[in-house]
Structure formats: C-alpha cells, structure tokens
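Quick one:
INPUT:
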C-alpha cells in the first residue's frame, strides 16, 4: 500500500494510505486524514477539524468554537459558562460547574 503525506500550515506532516482516505486542513493549519467512507467531518469556529463515524455519533459546538463528538445514545452534554461543551454518560454521573464556569462530571 502506498502512503501519501500532506503538510499543514502548522508544519506537521501527516501520512495516510493513498486509497480509501481523504484529508481536510482546518483554518488552524492542522491536517486531519480519515476514511473516505463511513466518516464525516466538522470544522469548529476555532478552526479545528474533527472527523468521526457517520452513524452512532453526534456533535455539538460550544460557544468557545470547539466541536465535541460523543455517542448518540447513552451520553448527555452540558455547556458551561466558559462556553465549553462536556459530554459524559447519562447514567451514573452527575455534574457541577466550577468557579471558572467549566462543567465537571463526577461519577456517582
């Protein structure tokens, strides 16, 4: 199998198989390679590209511009006053918000 490589504006070289993979470069200059089938990608306002399976997962973007990916069943998410989204299991966990406005999940 032949690999190809791409270098992002951030200067980091990423190698991936020449067949069955595609890549995207985010506004932040990072290159992300992922399978061309069964995966999708989203770019947050922060410029970072996140690739994840096209089924069984969902994403949320916080006010801070970050994209967070988590399983579509069995997880919930909360956004803190700091704008960051945090996902955690829907059972067996509680959460609180610390003095910085960040959501902190805690196992019960």
């Amino acid at each position: 199998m032949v690999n190809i490589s791409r270098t992002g504006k951030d200067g980091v070289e990423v190698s991936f198989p020449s067949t069955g993979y595609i890549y995207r470069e985010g506004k932040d200059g990072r290159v992300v390679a992922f399978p061309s089938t069964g995966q999708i990608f989203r770019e947050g306002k922060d410029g970072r590209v996140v690739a994840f399976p096209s089924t069984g997962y969902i994403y949320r973007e916080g006010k801070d511009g970050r994209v967070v990916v988590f399983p579509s069943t069995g997880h919930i998410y909360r956004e803190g006053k700091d704008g960051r989204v945090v996902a955690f299991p829907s059972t067996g966990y509680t959460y609180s918000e610390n003095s910085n406005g960040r959501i902190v999940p805690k196992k019960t």
